[in-house]
Amino acid sequence: MDRGNYSRVAEFVLSGLSSSWELQYFFFVLFNFLYITTVLGNLLIVLTVISDPVLHTPMYIKLTNLSVLDVFLATYATPKMIHDFLHESKTISFEGYMAQIFWLHVFAGGEMVLLVAMAYDRYVAIRKPLHYTTIMNLCRCTGLVVGSWVTGIMHSPGQLASTINLPFCGPNIVDSYYCDLTLVIKLACTDTCVPEVLMLLDSGLMGVTSFLLLLISYTVILITVQHHSSVGIAKACSILTAHITVVTLFFGPCIFIYAWPFSSFPVDKVLSVFSTVFTPILNPIIYTLRNKEVKSAMHKLKTRYVSSRLLSQLSLTR
């Protein structure tokens, strides 16, 4: 058929998480709480690192950027989902759908590369502790952080290039609560074999490469710490546990979803919610609860805040 005969859909309809109004009201309260907690928790880490000179180190610079990416990952789709819980019509314009896909791959791609950079940081710190400050200097640290953002920005257009010009003439119902590229491709009124393969090659290459680099880094680190003292092993294992937990939480759902990208399973929505809502809130918890330096910096920040409030109240009473 001639592409000119197609009438492109103006909007897509998202099926959401549930058709039950009782559940949607419950989800509205739950995800509002989770979203606010995610944003405030990650912003607290950013403020803590910025306010304490002790934390102005390569690792905490990367952690700050991870928190910023997590805020964006939580924001690109969650507010729309929360809004839809209170509305029967869950529609999004064609342009809005494509924009949401673009930002998803910018932030997710950037976080993949940043997690690799953080693994490299730990590799240098444990493998070559005496040369850490020389190897992981400010210039290299900045390059790794900027590189993660640039990689995400360069990766995203490749995901949209073969999709945005596809003819979508109906149906326009997407069985998801957010804008999923794998699901919308199936709605195109033409053979989608080529864009499906291109999407898998693009996302698959980045995901597999990042995962393999992480696997190699942590394997080498684990082998290295075996030759250290028991105290060094305990400290390294504590750090590695946090990093490996975050990597598992981030890559686990992605691997399952993209293993069968164009098939639909009931568990897909659960994994999607986990990766877009729960992972951004778990990252700050995992990285801070067992980190004495961050907890100490947060305590000092709290003390300064309380002191400033007391001083301001005293000045008002005079």
Ordered list of secondary-structure elements with their pairings:
Layout: E1 11-14, H1 21-51, H2 58-75, H3 78-84, E2 91-93, H4 94-127, H5 132-135, H6 138-161, E3 173-174, H7 181-185, H8 193-225, H9 230-259, H10 266-289, H11 292-317
Parallel strand pairs: 1-3
Antiparallel strand pairs: 1-2
Report on the structure:
The chain is mainly α. The chain has helices spanning 21-51, 58-75, 78-84, 94-127, 132-135, 138-161, 181-185, 193-225, 230-259, 266-289, 292-317; strands at 11-14, 91-93, 173-174. Strands 2-1-3 form a three-stranded mixed β-sheet. α4 (94-127) packs antiparallel against α9. The N and C termini lie far apart (82 Å).
Quick synopsis:
Helix content is 74%, strand content 3%. It is an all-alpha fold.
| Strand numbers in spatial order across the main sheet | 2-1-3
Quote the distance from N terminus to C terminus: 82 Å
The description of the largest β-sheet is: 3 strands, mixed
Count, helices = 11
Average pLDDT, rounded to a whole number, is 81
Strand content: under 5%
Search tags:
globular; mainly alpha; 3 strands; 318 residues; three-stranded mixed β-sheet; single chain; 11 helices
